[in-house]
Each structure stands twice: as structure tokens, then as C-alpha cells.
Amino acid sequence: MRALLAMLSLSLLALAAGPVLAHTRDTGFLDRSVVVDGVRYRYQVYVPVDYTVTKPWPVVLFLHGSGERGTDGSAQAQTGIGSAIRSDRKRFPMIVVMPQARPNTRWSGTMAAQAMQALEKSITEFHGDRQRVYLTGLSMGGQGVWLLAAAHPHTFAALAPISSFLRLENDDDVTDPAVDRALLAQFPELLEQVPAAAFAKRIDKTPAWIFHGAADDLVLPENARQLNRAMRAAGGEVRYSEYDGVNHGAWDRAYAEPELIPWLLAHRLDKHQGQ
User: Which of 33, 87, 107, 256 is most buried (most C-beta within 10 Å)?
Assistant: First the structure.
């Protein structure tokens, strides 16, 4: 009899715990992958410790710089927004998707496709809110912000490019000419002396907060200033922060900005689509 009662008690506990377990998931930095054209690409997703499936979550797509390219699936989560999350996780109440580009590539073509597929898969898996999807990146990833936003208008509720540029000569370590040919076929505006205006037109009125170091000698600040002027001229909501004395690595200051995350979360896709 005692054994039977014990079994009944365990069964009741399991039934009671079932709904709770159904609403819990692993949190922290999680390994994931997508397959594009038969090739598997690894990425990471940050899931807050208080994650629950009972509500929709804002989602950030983060594009790393040239130094984090590779196949290990983890380097891209060690700098930029990943580093900022580890410093203070409470500041990031959101799902953060971190794909990794392969060596000798840009955030275009297949790399852009695998990033967008990782974003889509994460939105589905983690109950992402499609009205609150944001795009940020640094250096080469800052260029990627403009490229993906132009290629996918009305997808992102706000943008946060850091140390960004458009013109290809600002990232001359891509030695495969096919990469640049494909990108120029998609965006012939990149051949213009100042392509910022054409990109602002493609991106439309998506809000953007642009960050750059005033002492950046790798990507001169004028690149960001041109984008700032073009986005403002197009009638978009734009914030611009240029840090005195800061060289190319402006991302540590940018992701530490107390207002950045609240500013992103204040924007919804359906809000600025109607403007």
C-alpha cells in the first residue's frame, strides 16, 4: 500500500510539474545552426535567465566585425554585444541572435542569407515579437547593418550601426573578387562616390542610432557623418553619437550607453511603418 501511495504521489507531482516544465527552456548563450545551400553555419543565441514562452520577446540580430569571422561558432559572441551582455545581463531583456560570417566574406550574399535564416529560426523557437526586431553590428558588421536593412526594408524596427561604412574600400581584406561582384550586382549604388543617400532611400524611415569614434583612422568618421546626414534628409528618426578620442573600437562605449537598449525597445515596426 505504501509503495502504491508513493507511486501515486510521484505521478501527481509529475502531472503538476508538466505545465511548468513545458514553459521553461535553457537560458544563457546557446549553440544553434542553420543550413544554407547544403552548408551548415553555427550561430549563438542569448536567452535571458527569466525567459518564458508565455510572452513575446524582442529580438536583436548582431553582426560581428571582420576579426570574428570563422567557423567555430563562438568568436562572434565574445566581443561587442556579447561582451556587454556578460558585463550586465539585466540590461538585455531580449533574445540576441549572433551569426558568424566565414573568412574572406562580407555580410552579403550567403552570409546575409544565413544571418536572416538564423534570425527567423530564433524568432520561431523563442517566441520572438516580429514588431520588435532590431539590427546592430560593428565595423564590417556595421556595414552589414546598412546592407541587410536595405535588402530587407520594413523588417527591423530600429538600427544601431557602430563604426560603420558603405564603400568597399573601407574593408579591403576581402580578397575574393566574386564576393564584391555579387554585392555590387545587388547594390550598384556602392559604386557612387557617396552612396549614403541611395541607401537611406532604400531603408526608408527606419530609426537609426549611429555610433562612431572621432579618432577612427581605420574607418574615417566622415563615413558615419554622411550616413547620418542622408538618413536625416530622408526624413528618418536619427541619433548620432561620435566619441571624442575614440578610435575604431567604439562598440564598447556604444553598447554601454544606458539609453541604447531602452531606445531600441521603444520602437515597434508597426509604429514607423505608418509614418
Answer: 107
